[in-house]
Design goal:
By secondary structure, this protein is of the alpha/beta class. It is built from 7 helices and 7 strands, in the order βαβαβααβαβαββα.
Length: about 200
């Protein structure tokens, strides 16, 4: 066990290699143990080509049917690895924006007395604001699509609905939004925001 256990949590940005910060890129190259929440992210193939060694937690997604269990297991694995050697845990986007696994890692690390360092990144929201030419200072709401029953959007203000990761989830979100908005209310769907060649609006 290292004398001072430490976890560095880094954001990989929305997906384009150019969106990685220089600080994160240097740490990715230098870290002896890099753990990725998922290998399903546009920048991952580029990291592999650049010789960055890493392992992913994609196998946990295949073994668990509930996302809360997935994130809890990932957080436990990150902490377990940190007790053996310093690790860098990297996630898509910004580590503090809509990243439940990071929230759990921070919470568990604090309880275990493990130091945490956060390396910020451009988030998918930054890319979204640019793609849609939207100023978030105009009262924009950021709403978790998986928690609409707990925190629904206020219909009088513009809203970004996150976590729409499959057709099934999109269908559930549509049904929930129909309880708040009229059926003819217009929406804009953005996929791959900020990723050259993959962005669709």
């Amino acid at each position: 066990m290292p004398s001072q256990p430490k976890i560095t949590v880094a954001g990989l940005g929305p997906g384009a290699p150019g969106s990685l910060t220089l600080g994160t890129w240097e740490r990715l190259k230098a870290s002896p143990r890099v753990l990725l929440r998922t290998g399903i992210h546009p920048v991952v193939d580029w990291l592999r080509q650049e010789g960055v060694g890493f392992s992913t937690f994609d196998y946990i997604y295949e073994e668990e049917s509930d996302f809360q269990k997935v994130y809890a297991r990932i957080a436990e694995e990150v902490l377990s690895a940190a007790l053996k050697a310093e690790v860098l845990y990297a996630v898509p986007g910004h580590p503090l924006v809509a990243e439940e696994s990071v929230r759990l890692v921070i919470e568990m690390a604090k309880s275990a007395g493990i130091n945490i360092e956060i390396l910020p990144a451009m988030s998918f929201l930054d890319a979204l604001f640019l793609s849609l030419r939207v100023d978030p200072g105009t009262g924009l709401q950021i709403v978790d699509g998986l928690r609409l029953d707990q925190k629904p959007p206020l219909p009088g203000r513009p809203a970004v609905i996150t976590q729409v990761y499959s057709r099934l989830v999109a269908s559930d979100i549509k049904i929930s939004l129909l309880e708040i908005y009229p059926p003819e209310h217009r929406v804009t769907v953005v996929r791959g925001a900020g990723v050259p060649g993959e962005e669709r609006i």
